[in-house]
User: What shape does this take?
Amino acid sequence: MQWENTRQFALKQDEADELKTYRQRFFIPQHNGIDCVYLTGNSLGLQPKTVREKLQQELDDWAEFGVEGHFEGQNPWFHYHKFSTESVARIVGAKPVEVVVMNNLTVNLHLMMVSFYRPSGSRYKIVMEAGAFPSDQYAMESQVKFHGYEYDDAVIEIKPRPGENALRNEDILQVIRDNGDSIALVMFSGVQYYTGQAFNIKEITITAHEVGANAGFDLAHAAGNLELSLHDWDVDFAVWCSYKYLNSGPGGVSGAFVHERHSNNPDLPRFAGWWGHKESDRFLMKRGFIPESGAAGWQLSNAPVLTMAAHRASLDIFDEVNMAQLNRKSVRLNAYLEYVVLESVRSNPKLSFTIITPEDRGCQLSVLTGENGKSLFDHLTENGIIADWREPNVIRMAPVPLYNSFEDIHRFGEVLKSF
Ligand SMILES: *Cc1c(COP(=O)(O)O)cnc(C)c1O
Assistant: This one.
C-alpha cells in the first residue's frame, strides 16, 4: 500500500471503509467543539449511544416489577448472564459453554488460578512475561505465597534480550522447555499492555501442554482486538475485562473462558458460590455444591445487571461485524499510524520516536519518546489528541477499527508536526 500523509488521502480511505458507519454509533469526546482524536480505546472504550436505553430498560423493569424482574422483566435477570455468552464466545473464538461474563478481571484471574494453578511436589512454577501488568504480577505473587512459595523461586519471568523491547516467541518456548516439569502454569497476556506485542497464544499453549503445564491467558488487551480461537488453540483458561476494546464502560463486568474439556471435571477444585450451582436446583437452597457445567459453574454471585446491560450495548455492535473485518481495518489503521508517525518525525527535528511495538501486534502502537516526551504529550493533549502516557517515556496509541478513522490519524500527524 502506498500511503500518503495528506488529508485528502485519509478522507478517501474513510470513504472506502466498510466499517465507516460504526463511528456514528459511539459518543466521541469533544475538544473545543470538535471531535477529539481518541487513541485510548485500549484503556477505556468509547460509549455506544445505546447504553442509555439498555440501562433504562432494566431501571424501568426494576421500577415496575421490583424483585419479580428476575422472571417478569423483558430480559429476566435470573438469566441475564446468558444473554451475553453467544456474543462473547464469538469474540474470543469459544463455544458458548466455555465462556461466562462475571466479576472483574483480577477476581476472575484468582478464581481461575484456584482451579488451574495446582502446584505439587517439584511442579510448582509459573512462567510469565517480565513487566506484566501490575495486577497480574500481584495476583501471581499472592498466589504463590498462598501456596507457601517464594516469588523469586516460584515465578520465572521472561525478559526481552538485551537491547530489545519485545520478547521473541522462540525464547518464550525455550524457557518453557528448559524448565519442563517444574512448571505448573504458563500465564501470559494476549497483548502486552505496554509494548503492544501480541503473543503467540497457540504455540505457547502447545508448548505448555508438552511439558505438562496448564496455559492461561489474560486477554485484557486482546479481547475485541485480535482474532482469537481459544477453543481450537486448546487454551485451559482465559480472562479479560470488557471496558477496553469491548466498550462496556468504566469498571465494566469481565469475562472468563474455561476450555470445554474441563467443563465437567469433578476433580478440579474451585471456589464456589450459589450462582455457579446447577441452575435447576439453585433456588432449592440445598446443601452440597453441584456446579453448572462449563464456565458458568465458576460464577459466584448473581449477575450485576446494570453493568451487564451496558456491556450488551457494545456486544450488539460486535454481533453485526466479525473479528476478521475488524482486524482487517485495524491492520490498515495501525500501518497508516506508523507511516504518519515516521513521516512526521522526519519533517520535525524536535521529535524523537522509537517504535517499540513489534510486527506481531493488534491495534496498539507504543513509541519511546525522547527527553521532551512529556512536553510533546502535553502538546498532543492541548490539541485534542487523547493518547496515553506511561512512565518513564512511552506514549501508547490505539486506533480502534470500530470508531477511529484515517482522518484521525492524519490529524494526529499534523499535531505532531506542529510541536
Ligand atoms: C487493564 C488490565 C487489568 C485490569 O484489571 P481489573 O481487575 O479489571 O481492574 C488487568 N490486567 C491487565 C493485563 C490489564 O491490561
Residues 104-106, 133, 135-136, 189, 193, 218, 220-221, 241 surround pyridoxal-5'-phosphate (CB under 6 Å). The longest helix spans residues 323-347. The chain has a mean pLDDT of 96.
